Amino acid sequence: MQGAVLYGPRDVRIEQRNEPTIVKPTDAIIRMAATCICGSDLWPYRGIARVDQPTPFGHEYCGVVEEIGSAVAKVKPGQFVVGSFFASDNTCPICKAGYQTSCVHRELVGGAQAGRLRVPLADGTLVATPGMPPDDLVPSLLAASDVLGTGWFAADAANVKHGKTVVVVGDGAVGLLGVLSAKQMGAGRIIAMSRHEARQKLAREFGATDIVTERGDEGVARVKELTEGLGAESVLECVGTQESMSQAIRSARPGGYVSYVGVPHGVQLDGTGLFFSHVHLHGGPAPVRRYLPQLIELIWNRKIAPGKVFDLTLPLAQVAEGYRAMDERRAIKTLLRP
Amino acid sequence: MQGAVLYGPRDVRIEQRNEPTIVKPTDAIIRMAATCICGSDLWPYRGIARVDQPTPFGHEYCGVVEEIGSAVAKVKPGQFVVGSFFASDNTCPICKAGYQTSCVHRELVGGAQAGRLRVPLADGTLVATPGMPPDDLVPSLLAASDVLGTGWFAADAANVKHGKTVVVVGDGAVGLLGVLSAKQMGAGRIIAMSRHEARQKLAREFGATDIVTERGDEGVARVKELTEGLGAESVLECVGTQESMSQAIRSARPGGYVSYVGVPHGVQLDGTGLFFSHVHLHGGPAPVRRYLPQLIELIWNRKIAPGKVFDLTLPLAQVAEGYRAMDERRAIKTLLRP
Predict the structure, then answer these.
(1) N- to C-terminal Cα distance for chain B?
(2) Choosing among B86, B95, B230, B259, which should be mutated to test the A contact, i.e. which has the most A CBs within 10 A?
């Protein structure tokens, strides 16, 4: 089958790879309906995170189960399923507490930018849709696999509640779906920080009430102006840099909540500053599995359309152009059709 | 009147100071029933935090209202009151959310190691007891002013709930009262980290079920052993150093809660490590005012005896010996009688 392989900075290639097979009795093999490129794939693509050897890439997926291992009991061949980037048993105490991405048996799913994929711990990891989805729902179901689930976790971890004021730092696909999630959770006011016109437009469509284009001190000052000098009750940090983290913490009011969902790159937090900010801080790899049943239901019933973040669709064979378009910010997010 | 003044490292003196007077119409003057020395006073006493000029010291107090400003309406002369180290209006949005130590009008209360004290924003800051307390309740009421309120906030911010497993890092008065607070909140298991026999004994008396004497990697390993390899659901960091913060975060399970209530000194948090720890992190200057009515009630009805942390009582004139005893860890906490 064809699959994307990252060789090094800005060198992603489509190659002939072996078909996946059942390795453990808890595995399933799925045929990909669609896959995509994640903002986090850009860190190694840009050489900021290192890959030591040619690595099959991609971790977002949805599709039809083709084969299951002998110990798989819940997932059945023929089902359309969505899963997350960490496979999880969904039965350990950490999973039961809703932190499936820290499951004691977790396994990273990799190589999803391909025609077929092996998913470990299939019963715990995969969630089936109510039936075979119409084609126009596939992008939104694919979004649930990571980027929507991550935006949703960001909003949840930032304690977004009815009527509250929310700031979203980052206008990538996760930030934009953080806006959508905050809207679904009843936020009264959603301030999106963005300088990019197309992204501002989508942010407004997803529920943003205010756009702040300033950054750094000016950005914080603008948020304070919009919140009676206090800062926001909830702030979603959806980038992962020192600047965005600082921006997020300083945009929250004392007693407020800051979530962070992008893998931090070179971020150091000063203990004293954090102490006197008085914020709640929570984040980490989003436990998408916790939210999948709810997110699939919202998508299935057409209450939300997170698939709108895909503003570029390419055949899998053109994966290299998909990375380039995101790297150059010509595309918010690239969907790949195997 | 007599009052303690810090001149520099290990140089605290008792001096004749001017009697406090009403400066603003929202002030009250109280006659101190008792005051004490805080663990946080030891940072400047040891020269780790700097004082630039001779500074009246102390911020823990309870006593009888002697005089009120013209705008004070709730607090009345003759009442016995307890207040916290930050005066707060208790009406701003931050106070209403329970973060009185970040009140938009907050003022630091200082110079409480003295016979009398001016308290700003008296109506918002001071809470009256149901009547004049018997003398044996005074130490516990004094503890409510800071050290108990801080331990209580630590337990609350670490989401201590019925039946949960709690770790307390730090066996100072705040850590010990964190144990007491966790017990009151129904914790099922309370692991106190302490190497000091007298403090271990008090920790057990306050509700600790396990004592861990190891520190660093060994301490973390011991906590993991006691928690099925997962770490604790709630961890209270009651010291404020890099080591104790790291110890606390590594002792919590993914999805768990870590609180920190000691002003951090030289603490830097690595963003990536924090991200993958998956913990909730919350702390800051404890909003003691939020808890004062409840804590006073528990003390008044003799449900808790936090005053037991005072294992040394001295006349105010011997304040220097009080600091020395705490600095050398001969005393957990020194109560001063004016």
Answers:
(1) 10
(2) B230
Task: Tell me how many domains chain A contains.
Answer: 2
- Beta carbons of B252 and B258 less than 8 angstroms apart: yes
Give me A41's structure tokens: 């794939």
- B284 and A268 within 8 Å at the Cβ level: the answer is no
CA distances from B178 to A2, B175, B211, B238 (A): 58, 5, 14, 8
- The pLDDT tens digits of the residues spanning A241-296 come to 999 999 999 999 999 999 999 889 999 999 999 999 999 999 999 999 999 999 99
Residues B139 and B27 in one domain: yes
Q: Can you give the pLDDT at residue A51?
A: 87
Percentage of chain A lying above the pLDDT 90 cut = 96
pLDDT above 70 coverage of chain B, percent: 100
d(CA B89, CA B68): 15
**Token couple for A166:** 């929310």
pLDDT of B172: 95
Do A6 and A140 lie in one domain? The reply is yes
CATH of the domain at B74: 3.90.180.10
Q: Is B119 helix (H, G, I), strand (E, B) or coil?
A: strand
Please state the ipTM of this predicted complex. Answer: 0.96
Give the CATH number of the domain where residue A208 resides: 3.40.50.720
Residue B49 has pLDDT above 90, yes or no: no
A74-102: pLDDT as tens digits? 999 999 999 999 999 999 999 999 999 99
Looking at the fold, whether B160 and B203 belong to one and the same domain comes out as: yes
Question: Range of B159's domain?
Answer: 150-283
CB A307 within 8 A of CB A142: yes
Q: What is the pTM of this model?
A: 0.97
Within 8 A of B272 by CB-CB distance, chain A residues are: 263-265, 267
- pLDDT tens-digit series, residues B290-310: 999 999 999 999 999 999 999
- The shares of helix, strand and coil residues in chain A, as percent rounded to the nearest 5, are 35, 30, 40
Q: Identify whether the C-beta of residue A280 lies closer than 8 Å to the C-beta of residue B276.
A: no
Residues B203, B190 share a domain = yes
Whether A266 and A278 share a structural domain: yes
Among B193, B69, B73, B64, CA closest to B132:
B64
A155 and A267 within one domain: yes
Task: Tell me how many helices (H) and strands (E) chain B has.
Answer: 12, 19
The last residue of one of the domains, among B241, B263, B283, is B283
Listed in sequence order, the residues at least 6 apart from A300 whose beta carbon sits closer than 8 Å to its beta carbon are A129, A130, A133, A137
Q: Considering only alpha carbons, which residue of chain B is nearest residue A242?
A: B271
A contacts of B267 (beta carbons < 8 Å): 270-272
Same domain, B325 and B214: no
Report which DSSP code applies to A64.
E
Residue of chain B nearest A102, judged by CA positions: B254
Q: Judge if A35 and A141 occupy the same domain.
A: yes
Final residue of a domain: which of A237, A267, A283? A283
